[in-house]
Amino acid sequence: MSQPETGLSDVLFMLPPDAQLVEVGDLSLRLQAKIGPAPPGHVVVSRPGFRVTTRLVSAELARLMDRFREPRSFVEAVLDFSQAEARDPFATLEDAFDALATLVDGRVLVPADSPDAQAIAPSLAAGQAFGAYEIVLLVQALEDGEVYRALAPDETPVALKIARPGDRLSFAHEARILRQLGGGGDSPRLLELGEAHERRFLAMEWRPGAPIAAAAQQARASGDRRRLHRLVSRLLAAYGRLHARGVVHGDIHPGNILMAEDGRITLLDFGRARAGVTGGADISRAGIAHFYEPEMAAALAADRLPPAVTPKGEQAAVAALAYLLLTGLPTVDATAEHAELLVRIARRPPLPFTARGIEAWPAAEAVLIRALAKDPAERFTTMAAFAEAFAAAGPARRRTRRPPSADALLGAALDRAGEVWADASELEALRLGWLALRAALAWSDVDLLAAADVWSARAGDDWRAQAVRAHVARARCDRSGEARALEAFTQRAPPGDAPLAVLARLMDGAGARDIEPTPFATWAADRLYAAMVAGRPVMRDHLALARAGLLPLPDMLGALAALPPGAGDADLWALAHDAYAEPAFAERAAVAARRSNDIYDLLRVHQLTGETDWLVAARRQAHGAARQAPAGSLDLGLALRLIELETPYRSVRPPFDWL
Amino acid sequence: MAGRLAELSLRAIRTVAALPTSDVGLLARRLYAYGAAPFGHDAELAFGPGDNALSVLGLAPGGAVRELLAQYYEASTYPGWISFRRAGGDLAEAPACKLYVSPRPEALADAFPVIANTFASLDVGSFKVGRGAPGLLRADKIVAYFDDLDHLGTVAMALTRALRGAPPQGAAFTAEIAGDGLLSWGRDPCPVAGAQPQSWRSWITDRVAEAIVAVRQPGADPAPAVTARLAEQGVRDWVTP
């Protein structure tokens, strides 16, 4: 990374007035869940309107940054801080220098006399004249400029991109690229490059449409893979045409692509675009980390200058965007630690859709994997070839009808007029509650959800009943009911480790549902510690709790690798692979699943790898058992297995000794 | 009583009556919520956190539905709802009747633009849409308000044609319009002096819960006795007496 461009004692830096320093514990539970476990006191730094990734810093660095609320030199701030905290100022400066330099690079700490030091606010009001244009509304305010919808003198709508007062931004480069592209296709037509009120501006044709992520979300919410395939195909084709004209965009993210109602794509913001072949490094590159190509992530992770954008690099970036549009999620698990995220993008393969709880789409996934290859030479030769391969992959066929075997078993189990409904014991009610819940989720069935509610209410009051009740309340969007059941679960859980894995499952994504995780994390940590002291194995529970975001990820890579062949079951190795993405762990999960031939193990490995062979094996096993079951018999375990096979990509083993 | 919603309402009574509690408030809340689609991983991904769900409805910035509604309506957000009120409209403070439009969650992306367009073109004065994933999974996710039943009927007829083929979810304890549960209507009870005004579904589910506690017998189907008791109070076909 570059060093601060000027001296330590003669340049005054400051935190802009709109920079926010918020302790992780004060963030909404949803954001805390997104960030994952963070050391106590860590602080999130962000600026509204900034495209740079929000940063997570230690409490100490945050206190040092706070010294820059007023203009200070590095030396002044470090001296103040060291005096207040009784530290050695030289050691402090040495420790903090790299972090401060990174904040200067990221324009979080800015020279006090620069325009960046002002808070971001719209500079023009609706109805105000700007040159020959009339401002209608602010579309976007960023650190370096503003985008307005405006009216031209003939009242046609235009997009006005205006530099902030005093900003050196010229837009000449962007105008040149837009001129080269000529408009009318996938990019807006350039109308004028000019200056008014001492501010440079770019006037472009107004293109209707919403961000492509919104269109993709509509398609995903409809469960319509045909529409999703069409949408992504159009996106790739647009980039194929762009590259064919010798231009690379250089700023891939969902906000830079609009999709109109008729499916027409518009690529926006060519400020970082490059025309012609480029090579070497490019210090000006920026963007959103999830859309960095692996070689850029690798360079930044190694503290090297980022490479200039290339067509092959952009192919990977567009593939990462396509993955996001198809699944709603990034290619690798997000982490708040920027450096760790870069390493993941640089090294880890994209997660199979099944590992994200999304139905496999093997043909499309294979195309994306190639476009996202870590070695550019392994990617498609051109963006057009990538687009063509994706278009040929076609939408996946989806099965929507319930299989008669599962339906018959479920019908018998949940028949209100039947014997089970009238005479079920608490244990049977517990089983039926779980069965009905899983079926309700598999088929999005409102009556089965209500049946799950009734059965879980009739299942007594022990910890297992509370666990099922919490799961049912979650499915009913009953936040207070879920919180009550979770609290009762921890109060009634028996001594020992068995409840830990159950709690991990219950707390999965709890932050997004505004459930305060701290008491449960403390409860789990105490139990885990007791188990460790007693010498009981804790690897699986520890990994499960880390996966749920309750505890930090343990450093047990070496301990796992040292386990002898044959040790551990499929679940342990799957959790280990989730945590560390070590291919050897996936292989050990596969070996364990082959050995056990347990349907839940087979499905877990299907989720881990995305490979359909595992699903075929699981189906063969369950349907064989269904054929052999005596006519009229009611096997709840079999019914559950058949239901889990309906949505194998998010099947789960029952949360405790279910039968 | 016939039709899909009547059957759904009877299933709601039978299922909720099986809960091992005589807490009328709890039973009423379960009846009120009956018919909400389950919130699982699919719904979580489909609708996303918080107001991300606006994208599904076409209400994200730049979305076509947002642009359309902005021409006619002023929007207000509440914890569970987004309300739209016709700009400059003079809808009565207590509308005479309400229309429930209940497509299944997976149909919303296609159905909501049609519904919004119909409301805008047929001069609907006010309507509300459930907010976030929980709001869009509930059965009564879209409710439009009318000053007279004729206007409601006109809009319902237009929607019946425009939404043909949309999979219905169905709001229990409301009066069926087209037989498939997609459209239904209700009329809030007259406010009682000194009491909080109650919506129709809140009022009726309170009465059903009281009836369940009063009449259910072990091993017997509670639905006939509950509906008979409601009939004594003047409730037929899930319409306010």
Task: Please tell me about this protein's structure.
The complex is a heterodimer of chains A (659) and B (241). With 659 residues, chain A is α+β, with helices and mostly antiparallel strands. Among the domains of chain A are: 13-117, Alpha-Beta Complex (Outer Surface Protein A, domain 3), CATH 3.90.930; 129-205, Phosphorylase Kinase, domain 1 (2-Layer Sandwich), CATH 3.30.200.20; 211-393, Transferase(Phosphotransferase), domain 1 (Orthogonal Bundle). Chain A is built from 27 helices and 16 strands. Chain A has a 6-stranded antiparallel beta sheet with strand order 6-7-8-9-11-10, covered by helices on one side. A 3-stranded antiparallel beta sheet of chain A has the order 2-3-4. Chain B starts with a helix and ends in a 9-residue tail after the last helix. Chain B has a domain at 40-169. Chain B contains 10 helices and 7 strands. At the A-B interface, strand 12, helix 6 and helix 16 of A face helix 1, helix 3, helix 6 and helix 7 of B.
Keywords summarizing the entry:
A: 659 residues; Outer Surface Protein A, domain 3; Phosphorylase Kinase, domain 1; Transferase(Phosphotransferase), domain 1; 3-stranded antiparallel β-sheet; B: 241 residues; alpha+beta; 7-stranded antiparallel β-sheet; 10 helices; 7 strands; 13% strand
Major beta-sheet overview of chain A: 6 strands, antiparallel
Rg value of chain B: 18 Å
Q: What is the gyration radius of chain A calculated from CA atoms?
A: 28 Å
Kindly report the CATH topology of the domain at 211-393 in chain A: Transferase(Phosphotransferase), domain 1
The level of helicity of chain B is: 40-55%
Strand portion of chain B: 5-15%
Q: What strand order characterises the main sheet of chain A?
A: 6-7-8-9-11-10
The CATH H-level superfamily of the domain at 211-393 in chain A is: Transferase(Phosphotransferase) domain 1
Unreliable stretches of chain B, pLDDT < 50, 5 or more residues?
none
Subunit organisation of the chains = heterodimer
Q: How many beta-strand elements of chain A? A: 16
Query: Which strand order spans the largest sheet of chain B, edge to edge or round the barrel?
Result: 1-2-4-5-3-7-6
Task: Give the overall shape of chain B, derived from the CA principal axes.
Answer: globular
User: Number of helical segments of chain B?
Assistant: 10
Give the averaged pLDDT of chain A, no decimals: 87
- What is the name of the CATH architecture of the domain at 211-393 in chain A? Orthogonal Bundle
- Strand percent estimate of chain A: 5-15%
> CATH class of the domain at 211-393 in chain A, please?
Mainly Alpha
Mean pLDDT of chain B: 91
